[in-house]
Amino acid sequence: MTKAALKTFNAQIARKRREVVQLQEDLGDMLDHLTVIEARAKSAGGKRYSTAEVKKVLGM
Prior knowledge:
This protein is 80% helix and 0% strand. It is mainly alpha-helical.
C-alpha cells in the first residue's frame, strides 16, 4: 500500500471505531430507558415515579 492509501485506510478505521462507540452509547441509553419503563409498568399498582425522579435516585 502507498502511504496515502494507508493514511486513508487508517482514517476510515478510526471513523468506524468512533461510530461503533457512539452506537454502543446509544444502545446503553436505550436500555436504561427501557429499564425505567419496565419498572414503571411493574409498579402500576403502587406509587408511580416520574422519569426525572427515577433518574435522580439512580444518579443518571
